[in-house]
UniProtKB/TrEMBL annotation:
Keywords of the record: Membrane, Transmembrane, Transmembrane helix
Region (Disordered): 1-31
Protein name according to UniProt: Flp pilus assembly protein RcpC/CpaB domain-containing protein
Domain of life from the UniProt record: Bacteria
TM spans (from-to): 39-60
Matching InterPro entries: RcpC_dom
Bias-annotated ranges (Basic and acidic residues): 21-31
Domain Flp pilus assembly protein RcpC/CpaB residues, every copy: 137-262
Length: 287
């Protein structure tokens, strides 16, 4: 009986006649405690990375799927326009990467004034709104004056906007000065006084007092079109920011046909630089 039990042991020994452990056994014995800890740490790190990866994907999906109401513009809202309900809409958008100062409450938007031009589908944020009309906020010594527009072509085919920097010129007869009558019927020439090289537009109004609006089709046929021969939404006057000197010069030019050439559109440093250059020109005229 004992001989039979000893047979497997002898067979095992016969597989390794020298009595040395096999490769797997040697590998286990060679793993010191430090290596074992590193192996465990590596396994835990891989497991943690997998958990974090799946968790991050889940979190991003939750954020992108969550939506909030946001007030958006349905149409172009010019600067200084008081916003009405028909100009806006409420849309559900993802709150992922959304501006912090957007609003979904229409009561905060309706009745407020646009501090800048708002384009269709733009989110209406707090910095685009004002309780008072920002167009008519005047600096010391600054005034507003409205100048009539006789032809659409005189006002950039009716495409002038609030905030534009324009050059105001007068069509005068050859050999005469701005403000004199062209009695001789001679050819007109354009003259631009130094006081009106860079003037900021406050508003462009139609004959009904509302903000003017000109379609692209109307703009293409604007040359030679008088503002009184079309619908009431066409520009009838341009309101400008001026000082005493500029107002005096415009008064002298009141009998002439005035034209407005766009010099710069948009705010920022460039607009401020042009207005500062105009201030220097005015100082030169005074001397």
């Amino acid at each position: 009986m004992n001989e039979e039990l000893n047979k497997p042991r002898q067979a095992a020994k016969s597989d390794n006649p020298d009595g040395e452990p096999d490769a797997k056994e040697r590998q286990k014995r060679n793993l010191d405690p430090v290596a074992q800890k590193r192996l465990v740490a590596s396994i835990l790190s891989i497991g943690l990375a997998v958990v974090v990866g799946f968790g991050g994907v889940f979190l991003v999906n939750r954020l992108t799927m969550a939506t909030v109401p946001v007030v958006r513009a349905k149409e172009i809202i010019p600067q200084g326009t008081q916003i009405t309900p028909n100009m806006i809409e409420v849309d559900q958008v993802s709150k992922y990467n959304l501006q912090s100062n957007v609003t979904g409450n229409t009561s905060l938007v309706v009745g407020a004034y646009a501090t800048t031009e708002i384009m269709p589908q733009d989110n209406i944020t707090g910095d685009k709104l004002s309780k008072s009309n920002p167009v008519y906020t005047l600096d010391t010594g600054e005034m507003l004056v409205s100048v009539p527009v006789k032809n659409l072509s005189d006002a950039l085919a009716g495409q002038l906007k609030a905030g534009d920097i324009v050059r105001v010129s007068a069509l005068v007869a050859s050999g005469s000065t701005a403000g004199s009558n062209n009695a001789g019927g001679t050819a007109n020439q354009t003259t631009t006084p130094a006081e009106l090289q860079y003037v900021k537009v406050a508003a462009v109004a139609a004959s009904n007092g509302q903000s003017a609006a000109v379609s692209q089709a109307q703009a293409k046929t604007a040359i030679g079109t008088t503002t009184s021969s079309n619908t009431s939404n066409l520009p009838a006057s341009v309101t400008l920011y001026v000082n005493e000197q500029q107002l005096s010069r415009l008064t002298q030019m009141s009998q002439s046909e005035l034209t407005f050439a766009l010099v710069y559109r948009g705010g920022g440093t460039e607009a401020k630089t042009l207005l500062q250059e105009q201030t220097q020109l005015l100082e030169g005229v005074q001397k």
